[in-house]
Specification:
heterodimer, A: alpha+beta, 5-stranded mixed beta sheet, 5 strands, 33% helix, B: 843 residues, 4-stranded mixed beta sheet, 25 strands, 40% helix, 13% strand, globular
């Protein structure tokens, strides 16, 4: 089970801010979430970063990044402030 | 000398508080083209007028307040103004930017900026309008918090003021404008040291755009872009900057327990999402802003201003606090007292860590116990007990307690709420920023490295120096123009970013552009075509500038303005003795990895700094080269640059001397401030009455020198003025705007006092010398007065004539506007009122 957090307006789009999902890789996780949340998720996630335990998967193995039990994933839409 | 460019008045108001005089400081075409306004213009003025080596809290320091050319133009998020002065924490330059309405009103009053010099003799309220500056009594306001200080002001005036922290010269005291704040670097203490409690400004001038049609089109498209972008159209309006709490926490950049970690286990408790769910009443924004990132929260039984991300970060995770309502309360308290919440939170966190190490046992709060925080914040603002030590900021506190390395700062200014070991380019920004450890002036690289829509490895030093330079120049230019830097967040369009391979074509393109950036910025006015994609988003800023002011503007020139502003400020810092060795970070940030299993999670500053200097075209010691200064048309600064290069020791000694004397200067400036506070507690009511009388007299004096006109664009056809005019000189119908017939008008000023403040349609127009009534007086002749009271009843100025049944009427000269209405209505058979002209020199 990995814990997924939907940050900022992604959470609002989906109506939930957190989910627990059974997935072995980022690809599986996204597929699983697409299945549960459908089109709005697919549209929104396209501009999101996937952060696994504090590291952007772009610097791991991208969608192929393995997930283990207890991992924390954050789907992060672009943010800014100052 | 004046300027032909639209949107400018060609003059700054130059005020001397000590001498109580003002003059016009001219602004010519050349300076407009090179500096535009804002912090660039202010830096040039500081370079010319600021004596090097003086203490920031001495009367010799200057306050330079400059709006940008777009301020008040109607361009999106452009209500901003800049305040530059000598930094109370770093001793270098400080420019602080704010979204309050002061800048818009300053422009309307026909001033491109305001320079304040000297120290007042007693608490002063500086009132600025189209005719100049007036020095009003503020003794009755001294000691009041920022909310009380603004309470008696009508919404039609722009204002800035300080609270008790500014009066007590807290080194991170801020200046407040409405609900917005000029936060960093001790602006409030500079005002406090000048005994300047508040500045107000009002005016009715409208500037017309150079090319109104092109400007209107640009603004329309620009607003649509901002509304459509996911950051400026969704995140910021919905969650405000507080959305960054969860974002920084996810990317190891949320400072926790005085920057010892980048993650906080209870971050979600204080996140923007939680605030929106449980507390948010609505969002709020600056004038003319379509983004509206401000928060209004339900708190303590009312709707109050909510905290920004920085405040949450510093008064939340960084002191190990997960209670959002307590942050609301401290944020409001700090605003009311007039203190920068970033420096306040960081200083308290430093104190807590000192206590943990046994170096500050008497501190009443700790990372585990926040019960004494409210009291401590009050004590800091009023320099009471342990609070007095915290009032000098984190660095001075940690130095005094023998552990300067525990202060999370650069040059003396505390870091903002981003842990740089999670985004190393952001760390480079903290180190080199002219203001000290500032996120904005440092280029806000965390946006590229961790939070924004592109994937750039946050832990690699590669390409970071060039990116910092690019971002700093861009943000400087946007700020100079009078725009909010949040408008630059639409710089990168929404991309399917998570799928982008860092080694893929997009990343390669970005890196290639970075290589070219230096070249691109090199040729003024010339753009390298390869660099275009990266600059494209700045198009609306340049287009708006060109169409509004008529100044020749393109992307290259625009970036050059930013680079010029940054280089000028660097030169001021060098002149003050902030040399290359102060581009530094605490050892915690540079030497200790944030996460033990990730050795790269520290800021490799020594690796990045030489490259940064190189990209900037500075020499190995961090001094701009003659070539760069010539290119930026700052050739006249080269002499000082050479001197810094050849005799750096002289400049270091200047800074050392300042630090050695600073305690003494502070004590000397604090003594009168404290005396006024004590006296105000006893004599406030009497002083308030005196001030009210003085204000009425001041108004009368202004009316005597003015005629009146109704601004057609402000009149809302309410007809109040027409109803009140004692001589029927105002024509009005429900369908038509009111107009004043100058032939009938007796210049009593009744219309100006009756026009509702939010309309502010009646303008005072200065009259020629021969119509000036300053020396005209009316007197009641006691032997002729029949005590009928007609003059009393017909006088249009309340309080100017007193009368009671059976008694003689009396005219009070200080409130009388010399309109002559009394003489007109006094029955001819009595002829009891006489007009006299006092000789010159008789007050």
């Amino acid at each position: 089970m990995v814990r997924v957090q939907f940050a900022s307006h992604l959470g609002r789009t989906l109506g939930v801010r957190e989910a627990r999902v059974e997935a072995g890789s980022v690809r599986e996780l996204l597929r699983e979430l697409s299945r549960t949340h459908g089109r709005p998720f697919e549209m929104a996630v396209r501009s999101c970063k996937v952060i696994v335990n504090g590291t952007n998967v772009a610097f791991l193995r991208g969608e192929g990044t393995r997930l283990a039990d207890g991992d924390e994933v954050v789907l992060l839409p672009p943010l800014a402030g100052g | 000398m004046t300027t032909r460019y639209a949107g400018y008045s060609g003059r700054l108001l130059d005020v001397d508080l000590g001498a109580r005089t003002w003059r016009e400081f001219p602004l010519g075409d050349r300076w407009v083209e090179l500096y535009l306004g804002g912090k660039a213009l202010a830096a040039r003025i500081l370079w010319e007028e600021l004596e090097p080596g003086i203490d920031p809290l001495s009367p010799a320091n200057l306050l330079v307040i400059t709006p940008g050319p777009l301020t008040g133009s109607g361009a999106p998020a452009s209500s901003r103004f800049n305040l530059s002065t000598k930094n109370v924490l770093t001793g270098g330059v400080l420019s602080s930017n704010c979204g309050g309405t002061f800048g818009v009103h300053l422009k309307r009053a026909g001033w491109d900026g305001l320079i304040v010099r000297g120290r007042a003799e007693r608490p002063t309220w500086l009132a600025v309008d189209e005719t100049g500056a007036r020095f009003l009594d503020a003794r009755h306001l001294w000691g009041l918090d920022t909310e009380e200080t603004q309470r008696d002001l009508s919404p039609k005036v722009g204002r800035i003021c300080i609270g008790p922290a500014g009066e007590q010269l807290v080194r991170f005291a801020c200046v407040v404008s409405g609900h917005r704040v000029l936060g960093r670097g001790g602006t409030g203490a500079v005002m406090g040291s000048k005994l300047l409690k508040r500045i107000t400004v009002a005016g009715g001038r409208r500037h017309a755009a150079d090319d109104p049609e092109a400007f209107r089109r640009t603004v329309r498209d620009w607003v649509a872009t901002l509304r459509g972008h996911s950051i400026t159209g969704r995140q910021l309006p919905r969650y405000g900057t507080a959305a960054l709490v969860n974002g920084t926490n996810a990317t190891n950049t949320l400072p926790t327990r005085n920057f010892r970690a980048g993650r906080f286990e209870a971050a979600d408790e204080v996140s923007g999402e939680t605030m929106a769910e449980r507390h948010l009443a609505r969002n709020d924004g600056c004038l003319s802003c379509p983004i509206r990132c401000g928060r209004v929260v339900r708190h303590a039984g009312g709707e109050r201003k909510g905290p920004e991300f920085e405040t949450i970060g510093m008064l939340g995770p960084n002191i190990h606090n997960a209670d959002l309502p307590s942050i609301f309360r401290w944020n409001l308290l700090a605003d009311a007292l007039g203190m920068d919440t970033i420096s306040l939170g960081s200083t308290i966190a430093t104190a807590m860590e000192l206590r943990e190490r046994g170096l500050f046992p008497e501190l009443p709060v700790s990372f585990e116990d926040h019960a004494g925080m409210d009291r401590l914040i009050e004590d800091v603002a009023r320099r009471r007990g342990v609070g007095a030590e915290l009032a000098d900021g984190a660095l001075r506190l940690a130095e005094r307690r023998g552990a300067p390395e525990l202060a999370m700062q650069s040059k003396g200014l505390e870091f903002a709420a981003y842990e740089p070991r999670g985004a190393v380019g952001h760390g480079l920004g903290y180190a080199v920023s002219n203001r000290g450890g500032c996120h904005i002036n440092g280029g806000y690289l965390v946006f590229f490295e961790a939070l924004g829509p592109v994937n750039i490895d946050p832990l690699t030093p590669l390409a970071k120096p060039a990116l910092v330079v690019f971002q700093q120049n861009t943000m400087e230019a946007v700020a100079v123009a009078g725009g909010c830097i949040f408008t630059t967040y639409a710089v990168i369009p929404d991309l399917p970013a998570w799928a982008v391979n860092p080694h893929g074509w997009q990343a390669r393109l970005v890196n290639q552009v970075l290589q070219l950036t230096r070249f691109a910025l090199g040729g003024q006015g010339k753009m390298s075509p390869e660099a275009m994609p990266f600059h494209l988003p700045l198009l609306p800023h340049t287009r708006a500038l060109a169409s509004y002011t008529g100044v020749k503007m393109n992307l290259g020139l625009f970036s050059a303005v930013g680079e010029r502003a940054y280089t000028l400020e660097r030169m001021i810092n060098l002149r003050e003795g902030l040399l290359g060795e102060t581009d530094a970070l605490p050892p915690r940030i540079t030497d200790e990895p944030q996460r033990p299993h990730e050795p790269r999670s520290r800021v490799p500053l020594a690796e990045m700094l030489p490259v940064y200097y190189q990209v900037r075209d500075w020499d190995a010691a961090g001094v701009p080269t003659r070539r760069l200064l010539d290119k930026l048309e700052l050739g006249d600064l080269a002499e000082v640059a050479d001197e810094v290069r050849e005799r750096p020791e002289r400049f270091r000694a200047r800074r050392r001397a300042w630090r050695e004397r600073e305690g003494e200067v502070l004590r000397a400036a604090l003594a009168p401030a404290r005396e006024w506070t004590e006296r105000a507690e006893r004599e406030r009511d009497r002083w308030r009455e005196e001030a009210l009388r003085a204000r009425a007299a001041d108004w009368a004096a202004r009316v005597r020198r003015a005629s009146f006109a109704i601004a057609p664009d402000r009149c809302r056809r309410c007809g109040l003025c027409a109803g009140e005019c004692p001589v029927g000189a105002i024509a009005w119908r429900r369908t038509e705007r009111a107009t004043i017939d100058p032939a009938k008008c007796i210049r009593c000023g009744r219309c100006a006092t009756i026009c509702p403040p939010h309309f502010d349609a009646v303008r005072l127009v200065p009259v020629p010398a021969d119509e000036d009534r300053s020396r005209v007086a009316y007197r009641v002749l006691p032997d002729k007065c029949e005590k009928c009271g007609l003059c009393f009843r017909k006088c249009p100025v309340p309080g100017a004539i007193s009368w009671r049944k059976g008694e003689l009427a009396a005219i009070h000269d200080e409130l009388c506007v010399a309109c002559g209405r009394c003489r007109e209505v006094c029955p001819p058979k009595f002829g009891a009122i006489e007009r006299v002209v006092r000789p010159a020199g008789d007050a």
